[in-house]
Specification:
With 176 residues, the chain is an alpha+beta fold. It contains four helices and six strands. The chain has helices spanning 9-16, 25-76, 86-98, 102-114; strands at residues 117-119, 133-141, 150-155, 158-160, 163-166, 168-175. The model has no long low-confidence stretch (mean pLDDT 82).
Length: 176
């Protein structure tokens, strides 16, 4: 190892005590460190790519499950009454469900009533009717009088001339 020190003689003396047969170690250690740095960068890039692919697969799976649930829900619903444009009614019902403004919800329900579509009665405290309601969730109760009573309405149901278009989704109380 060559000694090109312009600092104190003590440090230069210590550097000059490295035996010349070990001069090859400095470039080798630097090469190993550079190789390790490259490996870390490659690992991080592979990790990021893998995580991105896993997220994409998970999102696609959740989307497919949502589509399957939607198709199963539509398949289990009764057929529409004759002469009613179900495409329009479905969109209006969706609008009524998603309306965050009371004015929009009221106007949408007014249009549905004009088309002969009425909300299915689902009144809190009234008995659960499987012909007009679907259990969305349950809440435990200690009293027998409250067993199978509607606790809350999760989503309105709709009917046209007595024909059920969609049952109301409700929370029902059940005995513990």
């Amino acid at each position: 190892m060559t000694n090109n020190c312009d600092i104190t003689t003590d440090v230069c003396d210590e550097l000059s005590t490295v035996p010349p047969q070990f001069d090859f170690l400095v470039p080798a250690v630097l090469a190993v460190l550079v190789l390790l740095a490259v490996l870390v960068v490659v690992f991080l890039l592979l990790w990021r790519t893998t995580v991105s692919r896993l997220r994409a697969v998970r999102a696609e799976k959740e989307s497919a499950e949502h589509r399957a649930r939607s198709a199963a829900t539509r398949a289990s619903e009764p057929p529409p009454p004759p002469g009613l444009d179900m495409g329009l009614v479905d969109r209006l019902i969706d609008l009524a469900d998603l309306a965050t403004s009371p004015a929009v919800a009221t106007q949408t329900e007014r249009v549905l009533r004009y088309l002969g579509v009425q909300a299915v009665p689902a009144i809190v405290g009234e008995p659960f009717e499987s012909t007009h309601h679907t259990v969305a969730s349950t809440e435990p109760t200690d009293t027998a009088a409250q067993h199978e009573r509607i606790v809350s309405v999760v989503r309105k149901g709709w009917e046209h001339d007595g024909a059920l278009l969609r049952p109301a989704d409700v929370t029902v109380s059940v005995l513990r």
